[in-house]
Amino acid sequence: MMKQRTFTAEFKMQVVEELLSGVTGSAQICRRHNISSSLLCRWKKQYGQGRFGNEATEVAAMQQRIEQLERMVGKLALENEFLKKALQNALGEVERRESSWSATRISSEAFREGVS
């Protein structure tokens, strides 16, 4: 079994900067350094987040903020649906009580009229 290779942060940063420069393509970089394209993509994402000691890019910061806001919107949508259903159930219960109360009132009035 092959031993897992480890790469320094400087090497990863150099490879990603080479990719971002646009001089060579990702396939060429992967072949030259004998790495997979998924690994290169992961390094590129980490580079954007500033994990190699570099400054995080504005795009990565915006991406993280978008993901955070999307999670918040999803949570609020679920809460909104829950509250709508709770309100509908509560209104339905009130309507049932009112209709049974009015039916009871009508039957009691009819009973009183019949007794008199």
Describe it for me?
The chain is about 80% helix and about 0% strand. It has about 120 residues and is an all-alpha fold. Helix 1 (about 10-20) packs across helix 3. The longest helix is centred in the last third of the chain and has 58 residues, at about 60-115. The N and C termini lie far apart (about 100 Å).
List the helices and strands and how they pair.
Blueprint: H1 9-21, H2 26-33, H3 37-48, H4 58-115
Helix pairs in contact: 1-3
Please tag this protein with its features.
116 residues; mainly alpha; 2 domains
The helix content, as a percent range, equals over 70%
Kindly state the mean pLDDT as a whole number? 84
Question: Main beta sheet, described?
Answer: none
Rounded to an integer in angstroms, the radius of gyration calculated over CA atoms is: 33 Å
Distance between the termini: 101 Å
- One letter per element, helices H and strands E, the order comes to HHHH
The backbone outline, from C-alpha atoms, is rod-shaped
Say how many strands there are: 0
Number of helices: 4
Low-confidence stretches: none
Strand content: under 5%
Q: Which class best fits the helix and strand makeup?
A: mainly alpha
Number of domains: 2
Task: Provide a quick synopsis of the model.
The protein has helices at 9-21, 26-33, 37-48, 58-115. The protein folds into 2 domains: 7-56; 75-116. 78% of the residues lie in helices and 0% in strands.
